[in-house]
Write a structure and sequence with these properties.
- This protein is mostly helical and 291 residues long.
- 60% of the residues lie in helices and 2% in strands.
- Strands 1-2 form a two-stranded antiparallel ribbon.
- A hairpin with a 6-residue loop joins strand 1 and strand 2.
- Helix 4 packs across helix 13 and helix 6 runs antiparallel to helix 7.
């Protein structure tokens, strides 16, 4: 009996083998960066209101994390058509996400470019931060190239190119600009507690325990002033101890998310996974801003 082979990828997609994005996103540290981004995203009141009122992350957290991982893999390593289809699916989902933020009284929409930009910048900066923190070597010039390359992914969900930070300096300026508007609402506290200590699921006990270790590592990468805003305080020795236990947590998490747990040949493996499981199948994958 002949085993059916996955579809082939027709081109190198949005980035390609010479991009910094392929190198950064092929690192297992991406999961840590993703969790860091989710933690920080809760501090934007409009983004958090959308999640609180429209997401089922509290009951399907692992499922949401898996879907979001698949989206990032498709956009990064899929061919151009797959990446564009994934972005189109996200835009369709975003059309129905709107309401009123109870904290600020302002209307919100998942199609709002500024809210989308917050999600984009926290993700990209967190992927870079985790890569650098957990053994990746990246020069200042490559760092700026990575941020500039991210404009291609931002465009998929409708963010205008001219407002996306394209260098380390522009990224820092952006975060300084939005910093006064950040706050911790009750919904944000609920999400933060969920991310820091996800419920232990009997069917996926190893995965959820590993996820707690990974979340602890992500907390160690959150800037001190944002940690204080979240109400998370712990000594630096805890951050150091977390790194020591992180390696043991990799394998269950990567098996569950169906991604490799080593950087060896990750790009080829990721591209094969994307060909086999395209994000744009609505019945299987959907995008969420928080897990």
């Amino acid at each position: 009996m002949t085993q059916e082979r996955p579809a082939t990828l027709h081109d190198d997609g949005l980035f390609g083998p010479r991009s910094v994005t392929w190198r950064v996103h092929a690192s297992p540290a991406m999961l840590i960066g993703g969790l860091r981004a989710l933690l920080i995203q809760t501090l934007h009141p409009l983004a958090m209101a959308g999640v609180a009122q429209h997401s089922d992350y509290r009951t399907r957290g692992l499922h949401r994390l898996r879907r979001t991982t698949q989206y990032v893999l498709t956009v990064t390593f899929g061919d151009t058509a797959s990446a564009e289809a994934a972005g189109a699916q996200v835009r369709r989902v975003h059309q129905s996400i709107r309401g009123v933020d109870p904290v600020t009284g302002r209307s919100y929409s998942a199609e709002d470019p500024e809210t989308l930009l917050w999600v984009h910048c926290t993700e990209v900066h967190s992927f870079y931060t985790a890569y650098r923190a957990y053994g990746g070597v990246i020069s200042p010039a490559e760092r700026d190239r990575y941020f500039a390359e991210s404009v291609r992914a931002a465009a998929l969900v409708g963010i205008p190119k001219e407002i996306v930070p394209q260098s380390h300096g522009e990224m820092r300026a952006y975060f300084e600009r939005v910093r006064p508007s950040l706050c911790v609402s009750q919904s944000a506290l609920t999400a933060i507690r969920f991310l820091v200590a996800p419920p232990i699921a009997r069917r996926n006990m190893k995965v959820t325990l590993s996820l707690r270790v990974a979340a602890a590592a992500a907390i160690g990468l959150v800037p001190a002033h944002l940690r204080a805003l979240m109400g998370i305080e712990r000594p630096w020795v805890v951050d150091a101890a977390t790194f020591a236990g992180l390696r043991a947590a990799w394998r269950p998490l990567h098996r569950f998310l169906d991604v490799p747990d080593s950087e060896d040949a990750n790009v080829a493996r990721f591209r094969a996974l994307v060909a086999e499981k395209p994000f744009a199948e609505p019945s299987r994958f959907a995008h969420a801003q928080v897990a």
